[in-house]
């Protein structure tokens, strides 16, 4: 009912229907107030809880900022400026934490206490009075029934009548008191709800004002200047971050465009050039590990070069481990049965070999080029990549013809002043490389123009050298355990010199000149340049066995045909020899071929071994010829002795025949004449045969 703001207490005893209707309106208003204030209490409770959490979080933040200087960050380092700045922030935040603690206390007293009292006391009191009012209303109904029964009783005693009267009186009095107190509480609630709403808000605002005043007193001008400087620093860092992010985004775009072809499993080398100037490389490779006689497994690891060492590191490992030393090592591409893009690394002494597989042909060739550069110790120079690029450029420029032989060799080998004059190559003597005619030599005088380069080794042995070796091999059984059955004469000669070297064939060319070691240097230059231009890294690895008569490789080289042998002046592992075949001739000169090899050992040592083998072979040949000559003389003497013996036998036969003729001169019967004729004919035949035998023996002698 509009306009009515309180219940009439004076009408509580009458309990009229109008009063009951008005009471219902007040009860409905009380229920709405209870629901609303319950929600308001929850909101203010959240404010109070948040303030307590903020106070605790602020205190924890201050504590963590103070402990920053004790932290050890892997990438942070010792930043004293940041540490001092954070200490100042910790001091300010610690003061703010104290202010927040004071604010929490004020909110508990001025905001939460009034609304909690209204909710827990006033609203609960009304609910209790409402329950009592309901009970009293039910009691009034029972009292009305009792009064109606009392009036129906005509003959009752005075005592009973007095008791009933007393009960009615007490019940009405209690009901009236309950209704009046209930009405009083409902009327008072209209005022308390205003107080319960305004008093917490007033306390909240006063607490906030007090907090801000306290913060204003703590945050002086000094702190404002400090915060201004920090804000400027933050803006500078943000601008630096934005510029760095832009640069990194641009780098990402460039890398995405440049790496588009690298996403292919095997990119085309013509579109992505191969970098052969690397002295450091890293990446994932597959390494073959033998698990049995014929079985093997491939393990994928991260490989990287570190100085002159090849390192590997598995996933999850903290540091890498040494695979092998690649100083003075050899590397070449190999063919595997189940893998492609494989290459093999052999240590200097040949005792350790590693077979690796790359993900692409480009990666494989870059690994081979990098290991080759490291093997040459280019990484020890001041600018390794520039040195490697200069070496590769020299190899590329080496194929361009120059008017002078010396000019072509300026980038390939040092001057010839320090070269030894004695050559250890030919059995005919040494030809010094400092010959006066060297300056007048041309390229055509050493190597014929457009001479093809053979990268596959081919046996140059002719029939006259192959036949004895074949016969020797057929006449003796090979023992697989290295034991010999009966000693042979050739075995005793071969046992004088027997040296084994691990070599890799680089190539061979037909040459024209065989008098100077410069032809070997020129052949080395052209073969290395051709390999660099055509990206040929594959080399055939073999065992070079030096014996007295032969150089045993995959093919067989007759030692008598080796006329020159020399090693490179700078790269001691390179050596070559010129082989002159006996059979064919070109333009009236014997065919000569220069073979170039790379060894794990010093090339000079191999050339010395070849020279020693030729000297031993020369002395052996001289001894053999002397022995053969002596045998021929002994054979001639034996034939002469046999001839004298035959002559004496002939003379004896002639004497016997003369005696028979003298005896036959006597008269004989006819039968004897026939016999004489037969003997005479036999005698003439014997004389003719003896004369022919004597002439033949004389001609043979």
Automatic annotation (TrEMBL):
Residues 389-437, 467-492, 623-701 are annotated as: Disordered. It holds the Pfam family PH. Residues 623-658, 691-701 have a biased composition (Basic and acidic residues). The keyword Membrane applies. The chain crosses the membrane at residues 544-566. The keyword Transmembrane applies. Keywords: Cell cycle, Cell projection, Cytoplasm, Cytoplasmic vesicle, Endosome, Membrane, Nucleus, Transmembrane, Transmembrane helix. SUPFAM superfamilies: BAR/IMD domain-like (SSF103657), PH domain-like (SSF50729). Residues 278-376 form the PH domain. It is a peripheral membrane protein. It is found in: Cell projection; Cytoplasmic vesicle; Early endosome membrane; Nucleus. This is PH domain-containing protein. It comes from Electrophorus electricus (Electric eel).
């Amino acid at each position: 009912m509009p306009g009515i703001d309180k219940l009439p207490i004076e009408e509580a005893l009458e309990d009229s229907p109008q009063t009951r209707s008005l009471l219902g309106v007040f009860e409905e208003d009380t229920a709405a107030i209870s629901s609303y204030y319950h929600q308001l209490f929850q909101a203010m409770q959240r404010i109070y809880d948040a303030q307590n959490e903020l106070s605790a979080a602020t205190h924890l933040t201050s504590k963590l900022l103070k402990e920053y200087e004790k932290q050890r960050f892997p990438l942070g380092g010792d930043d004293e400026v940041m540490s001092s700045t954070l200490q100042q922030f910790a001091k300010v935040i610690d003061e703010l934490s104290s202010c927040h603690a004071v604010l929490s206390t004020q909110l508990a007293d001025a905001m939460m206490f009034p609304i909690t009292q209204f909710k827990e006391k006033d609203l609960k009191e009304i609910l209790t009075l409402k329950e009592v009012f309901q009970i009293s209303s039910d009691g009034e109904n029972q009292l009305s029934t009792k009064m109606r029964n009392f009036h129906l009783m005509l003959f009752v005693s005075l005592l009973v009548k007095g008791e009933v009267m007393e009960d009615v009186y007490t019940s009405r009095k209690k009901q009236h008191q309950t209704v009046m107190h209930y009405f009083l509480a409902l009327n008072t609630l209209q005022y308390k709800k205003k107080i319960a709403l305004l008093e917490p808000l007033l306390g909240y605002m006063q607490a906030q004002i007090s907090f801000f005043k306290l913060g204003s007193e703590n945050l002086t001008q000094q702190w404002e200047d400090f915060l201004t400087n920090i804000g400027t620093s933050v803006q500078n860092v943000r601008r630096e971050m934005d510029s760095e992010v832009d640069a990194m985004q641009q780098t990402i775009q460039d890398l995405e465009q440049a790496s588009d072809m690298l996403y292919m499993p095997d990119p085309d080398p013509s579109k992505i050039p191969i970098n052969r100037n690397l002295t450091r490389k890293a990446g994932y490779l597959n390494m073959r590990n033998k698990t049995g006689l014929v079985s093997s497994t491939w393990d994928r690891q991260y490989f990287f070069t570190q100085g002159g060492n090849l390192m590997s590191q598995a996933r999850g490992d903290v540091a890498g481990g040494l695979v092998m030393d690649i100083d003075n090592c050899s590397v070449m591409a190999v063919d595997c049965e189940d893998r492609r893009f494989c290459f093999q690394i052999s240590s200097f002494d040949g005792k350790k070999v590693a077979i690796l597989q790359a993900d692409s042909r480009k990666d494989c060739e870059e690994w081979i080029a990098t290991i080759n550069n490291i093997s040459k110790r280019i990484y020890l120079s001041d600018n390794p990549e520039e040195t490697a690029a200069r070496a590769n450029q020299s190899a590329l420029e080496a194929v361009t013809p120059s008017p002078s032989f010396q000019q072509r060799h300026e980038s390939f080998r040092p001057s010839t002043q320090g070269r030894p004059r004695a050559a250890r190559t030919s059995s005919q003597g040494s030809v010094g490389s400092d010959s006066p005619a060297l300056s007048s030599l041309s390229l055509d005088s050493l190597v014929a123009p457009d001479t093809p380069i053979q990268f596959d080794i081919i046996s140059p042995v002719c029939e006259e050298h192959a036949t004895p070796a074949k016969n020797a091999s057929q006449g003796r059984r090979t023992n697989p355990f290295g034991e010999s059955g009966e000693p042979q004469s050739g075995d005793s000669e071969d046992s004088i010199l027997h040296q084994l070297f691990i070599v890799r064939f680089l190539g061979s060319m037909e040459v024209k000149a065989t008098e100077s070691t410069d032809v070997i240097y020129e052949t080395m230059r052209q073969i290395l340049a051709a390999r660099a231009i055509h990206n040929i890294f594959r080399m055939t690895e073999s065992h070079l066995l030096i014996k007295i008569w032969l150089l045993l490789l995959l093919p067989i080289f007759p030692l008598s045909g080796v006329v020159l042998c020399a090693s490179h002046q700078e790269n001691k592992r390179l050596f070559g020899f010129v082989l002159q075949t006996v059979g064919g001739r070109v333009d009236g000169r014997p065919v000569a071929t220069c073979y170039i090899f790379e060894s794990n050992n010093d090339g000079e040592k191999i050339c010395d071994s070849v020279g020693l083998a030729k000297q031993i072979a020369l002395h052996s040949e001289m001894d053999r010829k002397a022995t053969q000559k002596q045998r021929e003389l002994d054979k001639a003497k034996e034939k002469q002795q046999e001839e004298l013996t035959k002559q004496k036998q002939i003379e004896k036969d002639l004497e016997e025949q003369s005696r028979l003729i003298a005896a036959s001169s006597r008269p004989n019967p006819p039968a004897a004449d026939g016999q004489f004729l037969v003997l005479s004919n036999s005698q003439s035949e014997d004389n003719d045969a003896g004369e022919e035998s004597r002439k033949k023996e004389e001609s043979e002698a």
